[in-house]
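does this look right to u?? flavin-adenine dinucleotide version
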Amino acid sequence: MDFHYQSPWFIEALEKEKDLKVNELNLNLNCDVCIIGGGYTGLWTAIKIKEKKPQLNIILIEKDLCGSGASGRNGGCMIPQSTKFQGIRDVVGIEDAKKMVLSTEAAVKHIKDFCSENKINAEIRDDGVLYGATNIFHQGAFESLISDLNEHNINSWERLSKEKVQNLTKSSKFIDGYFSQTGGSLQPAVLVRGLKKLAENNGIKIFEKSTVISYNDKKEIYVKTKNGSVSCEKLVLAINAWTPNFLPFLSRSVVLVSSDMIITEPMQNELKNLGLNNGLVILDCNLFTHYSRTTPDGKIILGKGGNTLSFRNKVINSFDGPSTIEKFLKKSLVSFYPSLKKAKITTSWNGPSERTKTGFPFFGYHPKNKNISYAFGYSGNGVLTCHVGGEILSSMALEEQNEWTKSNFCKGPLKMFPPEPFRWLGAMIIRNAIRRKESDQEEGKDPKWFDKQLAKIAVSVGRVDFEKK
Ligand SMILES: Cc1cc2nc3c(=O)[nH]c(=O)nc-3n(C[C@H](O)[C@H](O)[C@H](O)COP(=O)(O)OP(=O)(O)OC[C@H]3O[C@@H](n4cnc5c(N)ncnc54)[C@H](O)[C@@H]3O)c2cc1C
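got this back:
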């Protein structure tokens, strides 16, 4: 079978499937609920609908293999939405923001329990999350956030001494930092392939290698692939980065930008010498955050968002290839861990990450047909949030009146970007300003005034500001 360039997680997960059978859609079928997209969002939605209404007939259609999108190639870093609390609150209000923080935090345990009950060996290690300051500008970065989270009794973060931060991260690059026990890491592709298998075992029909080429938004909903079709009562779109092309009314709701990653060869001894032996997720406080963690078999990964920006939000070919900043990422890794200078990078890859103007996802109904719902815009923070997304979309598809369907998260995009070419040009200018600013800060220099002003625009469009307030 042909595979695209894929992440090592996805290749590893497929290798573990002894009998990889691909079911293509080449019939004309009917069902109650049809879901397009076989990533975390589509699969959690399917599983939750089946849990709530076992009698419903559900079909899920995936253009490649389930997990071949972001869900099978992400960093596997479980990071709740608590760090975005202030930004979310300012847009949707306190109650909705609290709900999102608490639900994404609870998702750590839900996913862990779910995997253990269903024998999905997704290598879950809930050893927490640490954001560290690598320069004086980021010292004390979470004080205002923690004060706001405390005010609502939802704070899980604590500031650590420099010694403790360095002891946890094993990196002397960090001079300050904040730790939360709620989070950790997992093997992302094993999770998504495990969800696929479980969904099938629960009676959900899954078709892969079956691109949906059109749908009609009239009363009788009808979805077409090259060789088949599905008529359904309810349609759920869970196609992530491909949404702007499929639903043009959402084309201005995101900026598609790559997240790039590297992974080393297994280096058990080196990591043992360093003392890095758990699933802790380690991030710096840059706007384009470096994220890093080890794997149970002794590799280390490092990633960074904010590199390739696509014009017109197209899913361009380079998103399916190696990272164009592999050397830069290796340099970053060595800057955190100088002893890994000789570590061999076995693979680099990237993928499209959809950044909304608010910095958090939205859910909505098709403007012409309420029986069609969608989720979009996890903004680089989907491993836990997609679990919540599945709960939300299942509620929407089943017409449940609950705290999610009544929330501001289900009102579609709450803010839009300008049209092209201004979106792409603006994003490029701001990205480059952020790069210059962060590079100056790393050198201990006060960034230039205009770079700081341009970076502030990124903050106002939902990037988390980890600078002292
Ligand atoms: C490189 C990278 C690293 C990341 N790291 C992290 C991380 O460490 N932690 C974190 O929380 N988040 C991370 N994210 C974000 C996270 O991976 C995503 O938010 C999440 O996986 C989104 O899941 P999804 O199901 O919505 O989308 P996807 O997993 O992208 O699934 C969408 C699916 O729809 C299918 N599809 C598209 N069009 C069609 C069509 N026409 N017909 C049929 N099927 C179609 C696609 O093939 C795809 O499988 C990262 C993202 C990337 C790209």
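Residues 94-117 form the longest helix (24 residues). idk if thats expected tbh
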